[in-house]
Specification:
- The chain is mainly alpha-helical and about 150 residues long.
- The protein has six helices and no strands.
- Helix 1 packs across helix 3, helix 2 packs antiparallel against helix 3 and helix 3 crosses helix 4.
- It is globular, with a radius of gyration of 19 Å.
- The protein starts with a helix and ends in a 22-residue tail after the last helix.
Length: about 150
C-alpha cells in the first residue's frame, strides 16, 4: 500500500517530496508503534509505519536511476542497496546495546528516529531529476558510431 500510494505521490510531486512524506508518516507513527498501549494501536501503527517505510524505500531505485549517468544507470540502484546492507550490518548489535541500556521500546524508537531523520536530511539536501526520460528518440541517430 505504501509503495503504491507514495509512488504515485512521487510521480506527481517529485521523488524527494514523496519519500520525505512517507518518512514523515513513519516518524509520526513511532510513538504508537513502539509504546502503543493496546493491540489495536500497535497493529494500526505497525501497518502505517510499514506503509511509510515501503513508500520511501520503494521510490529510492527510481530516484537513483534518474540521478545516475546513462552509463551507470543499471549499476547505481543495486550498488546503493548492497552498500546500504553493508552499512546496516551492525544494526542488530547496536540495537541490542541500546536495549540493554534504555529498554526495548526506547532502543527501537531511537534507532528508527535516527534512521528516518538521516535519510530525510540526505533527501532534503540532495538533487532531483524528476521525470527524466530514459528512452532515446527512435528517429535520432545513435550518439556513438559502432565502427
Amino acid at each position: 500500500m505504501g509503495a503504491i500510494i507514495f509512488g504515485h505521490i512521487s510521480q506527481v510531486a517529485g521523488r524527494r517530496k514523496g519519500m520525505i512524506a512517507a518518512l514523515g508518516l513513519s516518524l509520526v507513527m513511532i510513538p504508537l508503534w513502539a509504546f502503543g498501549g493496546g493491540l489495536v494501536a500497535i497493529v494500526s501503527a505497525a501497518f502505517l509505519m510499514q506503509a511509510g517505510v515501503q513508500g520511501a524505500w520503494g521510490v529510492i531505485p527510481v530516484h537513483l536511476s534518474e540521478l545516475s549517468a546513462d552509463s551507470a544507470r543499471g549499476l547505481m540502484p543495486g550498488l546503493a542497496y548492497q552498500l546500504g546492507i553493508l552499512l546496516a550490518s551492525p544494526t542488530n548489535s547496536i540495537q541490542y546495546s541500546l536495549h540493554e541500556r534504555f529498554g526495548y521500546q526506547w532502543a527501537i524508537a531511537g534507532f528508527e528516529i535516527m534512521t528516518i531523520l538521516t535519510l530525510a536530511a540526505l533527501l532534503w539536501c540532495g538533487s532531483e531529476s524528476h521525470s527524466r526520460s530514459f528512452v532515446r528518440d527512435a528517429y535520432a541517430p545513435p550518439s556513438e558510431s559502432l565502427s
